[in-house]
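Researcher: Here's my situation. A collaborator sent me these components and asked whether they could plausibly form a single complex. I don't have experimental data yet, so a predicted model of the whole assembly would be a useful starting point for our discussion.
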Amino acid sequence: MTTLLVLPVVIPLLTAILLLLAWRQRRVQRILSALSAGAVLVCGLLIVRTVTRDGVVAVQLGDWPAPFGVTFVADMFSALMIAVTGLIGVTVAVYSAMTIDANRERYGYHPLVQMLLTGVCGAFLTGDLFNLYVWFEVMLMASFVLLALGGGRAQIEGAVKYVALNLIASALFLAAAGVLYGLSGTLNMADLSERLAASDRPGLVTAASMLLLVAFGIKAAAFPFFFWLPASYHTPPAAVSALFAGLLTKVGVYALIRVFTLIFVADVAYTHGLVLVIAALTMITGVLGAWTQREFRRVLSFHIVSQIGYMLMGLGLFTRLALAGSVFYILHHIVVKTNLFLVAGAVQRLQGSGELARLGGLYASRPFLAALFLVPALSLAGIPPLSGFFAKLSLIQAGLETEAYLMVAIALAVGLLTLLSMTKIWHEAFWKAAPEGADEPRRNIRGLLLPIGTLAAVTIVIGLAAGHLFALATVAADQLMDRETYVSTVLGGRR
Amino acid sequence: MQPLLAIVVGALYTAGLYLMLRRSLVGLIIGLALLGHAANLLIFTAAGLTRGRAPLLVDGVPPSPMADPLPQAVILTAIVIGFGVLAFALVLFRRGAEHAGTDDLDAMRTTES
């Protein structure tokens, strides 16, 4: 048990070190990178199985009893996130092996991806607030370098904004951790949950929760802190943006859901009401921003923002069904969004540009790729029977149950606008004739269809077997709502 | 001691935010550094100060009052992380300024249209 919970962090970390030793062996690096991500996927699935059997599980690292040592905790939410991280890791590693240029590979691309996975998995597993900060920094440091690596002016400028905003978020996170420690004398999240519930200064607790809301809101690209995302995500190579689009903002959402279900539940009307307002504004600005964009990956970037709104909507409504909807939405979104960025990369490889005006004719010349674009695009917009439909359905049901009618109306309208945006890309890149003077695409992208096809297949399977995954998401939501079990599992014998 | 440190933390936050609102890249990075220091001192102060007491056991018995060692450990970690991240940011911002030919942040908008 102990080993299994630590493996998702240890495997990519050791792989990163191995890859550094094999600095010049690019082929070895590619293979090891994919294998390590595959191992993370297997570990994730094993943890899902363990959690299904035993409920929430915790490991005290170094046998220091909680709350003094660092605790690793896996509930269903963490377990599912680890598994999907592994899946994205594998597909992006395969895609990278075929698309990342020799120069980037020579300067440590693959070890950096492994470090990124280490940070992401650590953030999903840790049960300690300061440790969460450390994993965030591990993940951010790797992402900073990946974003800037080998870049020209555009990439560097995108990275400047990304780095600056994330450093501000980190400083706020740190400040909030300090305030919470001053209030409660602990940094263990389970212990925090218990002690803050009994705190005699609820005002200060809420103030600290707002600091964390801003810190994680910046990382999750929620309104009004989203603008770094569309300024940077389209600049690096497609494999990097796909990895970022899939995982990074979702770590922010994960952290928000974790602290606002476990620690800050004293003043739900205020905190979660605010989250709901942010969710609505995030959805609207994201989808409207996407509508004005004329570049493939920039359209997709704005859609990340708008989708973050749906995930926060589940947290804001704060019922069992709503949280299950959020968890389901996050899983679906990671698969779909990564895939869309991979398709964008393939299109850019074929036609040498991401500007929609300069694309066209791909339906005629590459019908298979066009079909593989349609699967995630329609899923993103929420067309049945694809995964996005069930994700939106459960959130909207939860909204109706809690009589948040305005929220439901916004969610539906934004879904419709998402469809319009996807239609725009479909029309410009695939359906319309190739623009005058464009060369017939000659490059071979057959290999790229493997990771893209895999993710599309996963999207379809999630749609067809939505009941099974939703059952798991409901278990995750139950465990999120049931603080008692989480706390007693972590603190164990002390109670 | 606490009020004095509170004022210092406030001053650091003010200076940091002011510098970040300037349009200069140099201002931005110094502002980020100040913000990090402010957060570290905030942890130090918020966790409670115990003057003149080392966090050490004397013959296996904790002295009373005893300083809390955890904030110091946390701050040390945060300083190291902040140092690494700022060093990287410094190089990155320099490259950015070279590409843009100026340290005016408003000139860095090629990725936003």
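Model: Some features of this prediction you could bring to your collaborator: Chain A is about 80% helix and 0% strand. The CA atoms of residues 155 and 364 of chain A lie 32 Å apart.
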